[in-house]
Specification:
The protein is α/β, with parallel strands linked by helices and 244 residues long. Helices cover 26% and strands 23% of the residues. The strands form three sheets. The protein has a seven-stranded mixed beta sheet, with helices on both faces. A two-stranded antiparallel ribbon has the order 2-3.
């Protein structure tokens, strides 16, 4: 059995009510839910939230075809981390349906995913001996070579122990930079165990150690929406690729 877990909470600092914010008259949270529902490789879809309004939206837009997980309030604060939310959902699913072959993890505010993409990702994951495969977008403008921090009122390189040879102010002069854009990840359920996370690569410990990148359909880079100014970017992506 392969299950999809979409997580979304009611509160948000950057974009209040972001998960129910609509693009093309469709709440953000419905895009990943529909992509998972329309993927033939996914047997069951779960939506985890503490917010009654979000859970009601999920029911209305899916004709009660997905299963809701009541997310604890302790995992619904600004300080709560997604890793713990996914663990809570996994525990619920395992207790009710048994061990899973794979888990598909998605965020309610990340709309850059379709059922076709999920199918391809699951097929690749099954064919490779890896811990996960996740969607990535190239963000050369946010390369570690360009990022700086402020200390004592002055700008300094954020990372000091880098090989700067051959780099200059041209952003294409250094290695390509990719970000896990949080649209989707297909993972081994064991990635969420304490033993595995002790040896996994931060910051997203649920991805494990051996991670395959999935960068198709990314000529328009994707992201999980947290601010109003990010909505136009994802509108462009949806206009070009949304099929579900």
């Amino acid at each position: 059995m392969i299950s999809a877990i979409i997580i979304g909470r009611g509160g948000s600092k950057g974009l209040p009510g972001k998960n129910k914010t609509a693009i093309n008259n469709i709440p953000l949270m419905i895009y990943p839910i529909k992509a998972a529902m329309n993927c033939k490789e996914i047997d069951k879809v779960f939506f985890s939230s503490e917010d009654k309004e979000l859970r009601a939206l999920a029911d209305i837009h899916t004709n009660l075809e997905i299963e809701l997980i009541n997310r604890p309030k302790a995992l619904s604060t600004d300080e709560a981390i997604a890793d713990d939310v996914f663990k809570h959902a996994k525990k619920y699913i395992t207790k009710k349906y048994g061990e899973q072959e794979a888990l598909v993890l998605m965020f309610a505010n990340a709309v850059g995913i379709t059922s076709v993409m999920l199918t391809e990702m699951i097929e690749i994951y099954k064919s490779k001996n890896v811990d996960s495969i996740c969607t990535v977008s190239q963000y050369q403008e946010f390369s570690p070579f360009r990022v700086r921090k402020i200390s004592s009122g002055l700008l300094y390189p954020y990372v000091n122990n880098m090989d700067w040879e051959g780099t200059n102010s041209n952003r294409d002069s250094f290695e390509k930079s990719y970000i896990y854009d949080c649209s989707a990840a297909v993972i081994n359920p064991n990635n969420l165990t304490k033993e595995m996370q002790e040896i996994s690569k931060p910051p997203q410990l649920w991805l494990g150690q051996y991670i395959l990148p999935y960068g198709k359909y990314r000529d328009i880079p994707c992201l999980d929406i947290d601010f109003f100014w990010q909505i136009p970017q994802m509108k462009m992506w949806l206009k070009k690729y949304w099929i579900d």
